[in-house]
Amino acid sequence: MAAAYSKLLHNTCYEVGHTWTPFCTKASLDILKSASKESFKIYFTLYLVTALFRRRGIQYFVRRFLPEILQSSLFLTSNGVLFMTSFCMWRRILGFYTYFNVFFCAPFCAGVAIMLEHKSRRGMLALYLSNLAVEILFRMTVARGYITPLPYGEVVLFSVVCAVYMGLFRAKDGLKEPTAKVLRFLVGPHEESKKEETAAHPGVPLRRRVAAWMMQCLKAVRVPATVRNKLAVYASELDDSICHKLEWFTAGPRHRVCRHSQSCGAYTVGGFLRMFSVGYLAQAVLKVVGNLRAIVKKPSLLASTLLHPDNRGLGLFLGSFTFLFRTVSCLLRWLRNRDSESHGYVAGLCAGTSMVFYRSSTLALYLMTKLAETLWLKGAEKGVLPLFRNFDAILYTVACAFVFHAAVFEPHNIRPAYWKFLSRLTAGHFSEMNRNLLEVYGTQASKMFPDFRPKLDPRFSSLPE
Questions:
Q1: Please, is 230 exposed, middle or buried when counting C-beta atoms within 10 Å of its C-beta (0-12, 13-18, 19+)?
Q2: Distance between CA 174 and CA 194 in Å, rounded?
Q3: Distance CA 274, CA 373 (A)
Q4: DSSP secondary structure letters along 70-116
């Protein structure tokens, strides 16, 4: 394999890269046209949804909305155009290609592009690309037979990451916002050590508590206020017999060190119902929005979309996470007769197994890289680890170079959704590389396109037809 990597490829950039046109300038302009158009569509949708979700005022749309879209679109477009340009320049200057030349071309492109993006978004982009690079590296090692995938490996990884996260969440000054805010929303505020104890059982009628709980769930997924108010009225009119049974359940045993106001049973079950509702509704809304055109043409699809298994999967994932974390936390308080920050590690490890309902290696890897960033920053605050200037830009550059390398030599090891994104960004031109010539490196470069043979102009190519 090492001998194959050292081989030189003396074909032109037209024969290897931009096979749809023999002219380097036109190839770059084609990428510019497709990438700028697709980038604007992506960021217009992203910034619009974000602005509506955060309830931005009219001044934001007048002064910042369009400039932010154009700046991010310029960043994304620059990645593609500069890579195409540097790919051609490499061949013109050195006269050959190697297995490692993408590593030398891509850092320049990614480095320039990331500096064009908003500084506040660089860290998030760096984490996303590094997460993707780690996933691709894992797939490469599996494809080469270096390692064997562990069954439910993403669940194991997620559980370990959750153990550390929830341990930090329970510790004083362990996590900063907005991470702590997300976990507080997920498992409730009563598991933070800094929170004071609440009254054992507040004298609030159950009808009002159910209505308040329903309002909180619906508000979390941005259901209009008029709909929320109507549903709250229905909840406040529960049958008396049902209310008496629920009152008995909520007034059950609660350990003296538990900070929640209800019984431990009601606390755990209520957490499950709340987060299951949030997860189900959130996924259902995303499904409806994603299939809106099809639903408008065929309204009967609405029912199947609302009842899609993915909706139930996300609901069970979030609901089970909250249920397991609260259950284990309460159980440890009963068994040890005291509360401890260390309970967060055990409860987080158990809660992480909830990913069996919604398995996602992408989420597990992202949280792993985010945790690594959190731990590094905590070490830097204590003076144990160094803090590098523009580290987010450096990390993005390295990760992007690796991803571009994989896109050229091993596209079959890239996440399918990301490959579709690259194809849309380049109007399908990334798939038109002559990867048959790259087979000399032994990476199965043409595995995804075994029958593709570019129609090259014989005036600009010496390859046989």
A1: exposed
A2: 11
A3: 30
A4: HHHHHHHHHHHHHHHHHHHHHHHHHS-B-TTHHHHHHHHHHHHHHHH
Residues 6+ apart with CB under 8 A from 162: 321, 348, 349, 351, 352, 367
pTM assigned to the model? 0.77
Cβ-in-10-Å burial (0-12, 13-18, 19+) of 381 comes to: exposed
| Phi, psi for residue 127 in degrees, rounded to 5 | -65, -40
Among all chains, which residue has been given the structure tokens 């890289």? Answer: 369
How far apart are the C-alpha atoms of 351 and 328, rounded to whole Å?
8
55, exposed or middle or buried, with CB in 10 Å at 0-12, 13-18, 19+? exposed
The contacts found for 407-411 with CB under 8 angstroms, 24 or more apart, are 408/102, 408/433, 408/435, 408/438, 408/445, 409/99, 409/102, 409/438, 409/441, 409/443, 409/445, 410/136, 410/140, 410/143, 410/443, 410/444, 410/445, 411/435, 411/445, 411/447, 411/448
Q: DSSP label at 9? A: B
Rounded Cα gap, residues 388 and 330, in angstroms: 41
d(CA 108, CA 321): 43
Give the model's pLDDT for residue 53: 77
**Residue 24 to residue 460: CA distance in whole angstroms:** 12
Q: pLDDT tens across 51-77, in order?
A: 887 778 888 888 889 999 999 999 999
Calpha distance 213→250 (Å, rounded)? 14
Q: pLDDT tens across 80-89, in order?
A: 999 999 999 9
* 50 burial level (CB within 10 Å; 0-12, 13-18, 19+): exposed
Tell me the CA distances in angstroms from 268 to 225, 232, 253, 319, 449, one per residue in order. Answer: 27, 22, 13, 10, 51
